[in-house]
Amino acid sequence: MMASANTLCARIDAVRATIDRAAKQYGRRSEDVTLLAVSKTRTADEIRQAVACGQRAFGENYASELQEKSAVLADKALSWHFIGPVQSNKTRLIAERADWLHSLDRERIARRLNDQRPEQRPALNVCIQVNISDEPSKSGVAPEEILGLAEQIRALPRLRLRGLMAIPAPTDDPAQQRQAFAQLRACLEDLQTRGYELDTLSMGMSDDLEAAIAEGATIVRVGTAIFGSRSG
């Protein structure tokens, strides 16, 4: 069920308040943390409501939804982020429609995106997805594979490597949450010491965004806490 406009705005305000509180607690500036509203399976009308509440960045998991919603909402100045697994037969849609890709984990996909990125658009901002918890079911490269993929991406002119993304194994333990996010931060810092100019840690969702902010998240991906639970 679609939330009322007032409910949606209240939820967005509550998430932003959590971000502000966590940023202050850990000595960070809240403006350095971008709230990415995960809008997969949500309608264009729901996104339009969120836009009316001041939200501008939206994350999609399916290329077809990204294509449809970005076209319907082309009258709005929005930032579209693709955050799901990338299928090779969907790279053109992502290259044409997305401003960001958070889930890059293969050179072959990187080359397709580079070749298919329209010349009139800026380079596609990308993050390497890291399987930080070594889960067989999760996409992403192992930490020791990050540098090799980063070197390959750096050679592609239509892509701009911005940082790293991870979805750690779920846990309710804040200490374990922070440990996983700290690992990703250490991976980013290693790349920075090697001369990569990176500024993005895409980590943290509705249930662990405070731990992510504590460890340096610059983009938090929040769906349920904004739009509510999905039906079906």
What is this structure, in a nutshell?
The chain is of the alpha/beta class and 232 residues long.
What features would you describe in this structure?
By secondary structure, this protein is of the alpha/beta class. The protein has helices at residues 5-25, 44-52, 63-72, 91-97, 107-116, 146-154, 174-193, 209-214, 224-227; strands spanning 34-38, 57-60, 79-82, 100-104, 124-129, 159-165, 200-202, 219-222. It has one domain (31-227): Alanine racemase (TIM Barrel), CATH 3.20.20. 41% of the residues lie in helices and 16% in strands. β5, α6 (146-154) and β6 (159-165) form a beta-alpha-beta unit.
Architecture per CATH nomenclature, i.e. the level-2 architecture: Alpha-Beta Barrel
Secondary structure tally, helices: 9
Largest sheet: 8 strands, parallel
CATH H-level superfamily title: Alanine racemase
Question: Which features characterize this protein?
Answer:
PLP-binding_barrel, alpha/beta, 9 helices, TIM Barrel, pyridoxal phosphate binding, single chain, 232 residues, globular, 16% strand, PyrdxlP_homeostasis, 8 strands, 8-stranded parallel sheet, Pyridoxal phosphate homeostasis protein
